[in-house]
């Protein structure tokens, strides 16, 4: 080989080497980026909280519950300041001290201070659910001075195939009452203590009579049932078979007994599942229906297992997304009290032809303890798409993804849109993306230098 050929080869080899390093660096960078993006996608898909509810508000505790489409680790960051230094685990994880994955999430903040404002956000998988970037707010109640000795409400829940739900929650509400909730036990049983049950303003103990109507909602990640029952028949409540709805108040007969009317003869079970529909329907409220409960329960029907967007236009707009159950039923109770006056509820869902339909209905809310309506409030025009409850859920009474979820909280002066938004946390996947990109750029730079310098 001649001297000139050797000289040319000496100059070309480093250039070839630099070019080769350049290609390898490019491939590594693309590979790292692809893996990272796939990791983020898998980490967040299905972990968005749905049907967020605030229940069991007392002077020392409150419970936050929700469902997710896939098993996800869920915790609540909370504190008496927006810095939120404390973390609450799911009630089932407190025995082990480590967070596990669930689809039904039930997180109780304990050892709270009475009459105190608490800030909180939901940590679900790799994302945070907040109130439009700010923490949610709930205020604990004052201690009760006249707690009742009422026995607990008890019953059982099962699936239509005879098995027991793996995970589930039973919510209890009633006119003017706060919302209570409990997990369904592994044997299908549940118990809801009523001794500390309060009115919706949380200031006084609830007064229950034999004819007090209560509403139960049994919820699993994919099914729900709603049952109406009188307080006189709550120990135990007849068995609830998901996803069937019940009205256990029907079938009652009365007979004269002197000057009194005696009620007897309860027939169980009484099914009340509405007929299937081909287009979305609002059953409650009726047109211009008036409510004395400032957290009324809204319900209707849609195609089975179909997304239903709900917007309540009021002084503060409430926006939530939920799904109808296997029977096509949906139900929702706002986590905040609605201001007295005229309001509008709008739902959006597809019909049997796959066309998105919009239905609106107006209703009226009376001020608590009054017989007149305050001036109408101006609805906010901007629709805020979301994923369920919302603002400083300054809950008060007992809401649902669907159903009768009804958080309860002490009202606060400042209320904003009730639409939690999710803020993805920059977890391991994001760090890997940054690291991979920097490494790739560095290698590209070295390869380029070798290519052009030699």
Structure at a glance:
The chain has two helices and 26 strands. The protein is α+β, with helices and mostly antiparallel strands and 454 residues long.
Describe this protein's structure.
There is one protein chain. By secondary structure, this protein is α+β, with helices and mostly antiparallel strands. Among the domains are: 3-45 and 428-453; 276-418, Immunoglobulin-like. The protein is built from two helices and 26 strands. The strands form six sheets. Strands 1, 2, 3, 4, 5, 6, 7 and 26 form an eight-stranded antiparallel β-sheet that branches. α1 packs antiparallel against α2. The chain is globular. Residues 30-43, 252-268 and 371-443 have low confidence and may be disordered.
């Amino acid at each position: 080989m001649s001297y000139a050929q050797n000289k040319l080869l000496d100059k070309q080899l480093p250039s070839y080497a630099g070019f080769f390093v350049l290609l390898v660096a490019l491939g590594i960078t693309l590979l790292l980026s692809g893996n990272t993006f796939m990791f983020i996608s898998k980490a967040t898909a299905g972990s968005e909280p749905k049907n967020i509810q605030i229940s069991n508000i007392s002077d020392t505790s409150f419970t936050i519950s929700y469902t997710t489409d896939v098993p996800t680790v869920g915790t609540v960051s909370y504190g008496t300041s927006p810095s939120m230094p404390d973390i609450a685990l799911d009630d089932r994880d407190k025995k082990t001290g480590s967070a596990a994955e669930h689809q039904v999430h039930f997180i109780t903040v304990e050892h709270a201070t009475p009459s105190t404002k608490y800030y909180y956000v939901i940590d679900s998988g790799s994302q945070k659910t907040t109130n439009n970037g700010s923490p949610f707010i709930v205020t604990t109640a004052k201690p009760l001075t006249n707690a009742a000795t009422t026995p607990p409400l008890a019953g059982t829940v099962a699936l239509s195939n005879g098995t027991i739900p793996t995970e589930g929650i039973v919510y209890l509400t009633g006119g003017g009452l706060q919302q209570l909730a409990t997990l369904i036990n592994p044997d299908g049983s549940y118990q809801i203590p009523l001794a500390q049950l309060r009115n919706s303003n949380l200031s006084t103990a609830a007064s229950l009579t034999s004819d007090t109507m209560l509403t139960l909602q049994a919820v699993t990640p994919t099914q729900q049932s709603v049952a109406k029952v009188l307080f006189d028949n709550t120990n135990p409540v007849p068995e609830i078979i998901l996803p069937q709805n019940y009205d256990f108040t029907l079938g009652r007969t009365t007979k004269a007994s002197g000057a009194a009317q005696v009620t007897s003869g309860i027939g169980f079970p009484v099914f009340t599942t509405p007929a299937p529909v081909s287009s979305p329907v609002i059953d409650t409220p009726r047109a211009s229906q008036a409510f004395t409960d400032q957290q009324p329960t809204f319900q209707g029907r849609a195609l089975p297992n179909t997304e239903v967007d709900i917007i309540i236009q009021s002084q503060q707009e409430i926006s939530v997304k939920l799904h109808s159950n296997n029977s096509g039923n949906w139900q929702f109770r706002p986590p905040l009290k609605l201001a007295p006056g005229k309001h509008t509820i709008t739902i959006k869902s597809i019909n049997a032809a796959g066309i998105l339909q919009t239905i609106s209905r107006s209703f009226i809310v009376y001020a608590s303890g009054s017989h007149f309506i305050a001036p109408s409030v101006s609805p906010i025009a901007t629709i805020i798409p979301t994923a369920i409850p919302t603002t400083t859920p300054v809950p008060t009474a007992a809401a649902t993804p669907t159903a009768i979820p009804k958080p309860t909280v002490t009202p606060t002066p400042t209320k904003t849109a009730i639409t939690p938004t999710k803020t993805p946390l920059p977890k391991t996947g994001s760090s890997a993306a940054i690291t991979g990109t920097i490494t790739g750029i560095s290698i590209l730079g070295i390869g380029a230098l070798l290519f052009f310098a030699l």
